[in-house]
Each structure stands twice: as C-alpha cells, then as structure tokens.
Amino acid sequence: MMNHSAKFLVAPDKFRGSLSASQAAHAIKMGIFAVRKDAQVTEFSLTDGGDGFVDTIAKAKDGAKVIRLKTIDPTGQVLTAKCALLDEETALIGLTEASGINLVSEPERNPMKLTNIGTGQILAKLVERGYKTIIVGVGGSATNDGGIGLLAPLGFKFLDKDGNEILPNGEDIARLDTIVPPQTKISTKFIVATDIANPLLGESGASLQYAVQKGASPEDAQKLEANMKHLTEISKKCFKKSLHDEPGAGSAGGCGYGLMNFLDAKRVSGFDLFAKYTDLEKLVKASDVIITGEGRFDLTDMQGKGPYALAKLAAKHKKPVWIFCGESALSEKELQKMNLGNVKIGQILPLAPNAIEAHNRAPKFLSHLAKDFVSAM
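^ thats the sequence. predicted structure below, dont judge the formating
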C-alpha cells in the first residue's frame, strides 16, 4: 500500500453497447474512492478516432467550440451532428456523429445498404465555410463503402456504365464504372485519424474482418470485399493510383481509403492526436497507476487501439497499468507477445453471473474491479 496519496490516471475507452468512455471512467473513479478517499484521480474518455472523438478533443483544446450541423444518419433519417471548430482554420469531425453504428438499431444494421452521406454533407459544409484543415476521426462506422459516401457531397461523381450515379453504399459499388472528380479543385487539407492500421482488402481488411460485426452475413462480407476490390480497379483506371495497401485504408469500412486515395488525406493515429491535445504523456509521468479498458481486450488491440497504445506509453515510463474489460481472451503467451510491461487485467465476466448481467450492471462491476485492485495495492 502506498503511504502517499496515490495518483491514478483513469482513461478507459467505451464498453460498446454498455457504457460510454466517460461512464466507464466515472464507475472506476467511484471504485477507487470507495477504498482510497485521499486518492488523486484524473479521468479522461479515451478516444482513438471513434466514439467521443469530437467532445474529448474539443474539451482538451483551449478555445475550441462544438457546433451542431443538420444532416442525415446512415439510414437517411435527419439528425443534427456535432463537430468541433478547433481554431479559425481547423475543424474536426468524427464519423460516429452522423455515420456511427451507435445510431442504427440492430435490425437495421447492414453495411451493404447504409451510407456515409451524412458525414460527407458535414465535410462539404466545412469546406464551404473555408476551413483550411479538416481532421476526420474514423472509427465505429456502420458502413462499408470505401468512403464514397464522404466524397459524393464534395462533388465526386460515381457513375455506372450508362453515366448514371450509383447509390453511395457498399452494395452499389458493384455497378461502378467511372469516378469523376469535382469540377472545382478542393484546396482543403484533410487529416484522417484512425484507430486501426489495417489495409482495405484481404483477411484483415475492411470487409472480411469487420463487416460481419456491423450486421453483414458472411456472404455479404465476401460481396463487399469484391466490391472494394472493384473500387480500387476503377480508381486505377480513372486516377492511375490506388492506396488500398496503406495502413489505415481499411478503417471504418474503407473510409480511410476514400479520404487518403481521393483527397490526399494524411493519416495519423487517432490515439496520437488524442495524446497530443490532452498532453497525455505528461499525465502518465505524473501518475502512480494508469487504468484503462474497453469491452473486449484482445490481440486486435495491437493494430492501434487506444487502451493498448496507452498501456505502451505507460510501459515506456515504467508505470503499472490496469486494464479493465468485459472479457479478455488473451493467453499468457499472447499477453507476452503484446510486450506491455507491468500489466494486470481485470475482467467483468468472471464477476457477473452471466453476460446479460455483465452488460446491464457494468458500472457496478467496474467499480468492484477498481475496489479489488486498489485494495490489493
């Protein structure tokens, strides 16, 4: 047990379908205070480009302001979505605000049909308003369209062999024959913040690795893979290039690809951007224990997800890390492969009688984990 007032940095990601990152952070904080009333706790919602990206970065950046713009969700329903104006020249949007899977009920989840047009409309409004740099956080999308829904409102035309515009979704890409760039060149600089480094195609690409999680059948995932490949071939025909192998091209159903390939967007790690704006390294150095977490912690976290990236940063400064999650399927050997240093993993599922209870009473179980871990210090 530490004699001095222990300093905790609490920065979990979301527990998808159960808790937002800020709710998770609050539950962990309550657990710490139940054991150590004198603890110093700094809490953050960890974001790596997906949920909470706009709010977290805007909160951390002095002078930033959050605005709401009218647009549509992935099913075409009208909604108002948040974006952040970081300064006079820089705007930031997150795909989850208008194109997130969190906006779509389970029966409606279908990455063959759903669209990114809503986020594309926000991009178009920000370009029109003259922002010189737009940062796009991609992660948590409901779609698998190679980014064409983002590009159509900016003036790109996606045409079939008869010269008619295709629907801007993953399914209709099968009919794509020609891509026509906007008549007026877009001078805005785009930065794409991704939480994964996957390519567009292949077993670890947008369609085969993630489409089923978004509601596609295995057959649909194969069709989407073929359509993404078709998109790259049309890009080569019309633009003489295709950046489908670039790290991050497979993020958010290929939105990374659409932004990098057609708008020359520069890719950054969503976590690195978050770390920069929140001065995270300084906070890690000043803390005794780092606590992070998410719904499921496994080997895919090594592709660039926030909890893993934070654990690596903590390891660099030789700080102990506690990773709380709904479940972790990691073996000891796999954990060693992740090369994280001083890590302890706490799981909700062994505490809960079943998965439904784990889901419904996640704050209680998360607080319980924090209590147990702090008591054992």
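The longest helix spans residues 218-239.
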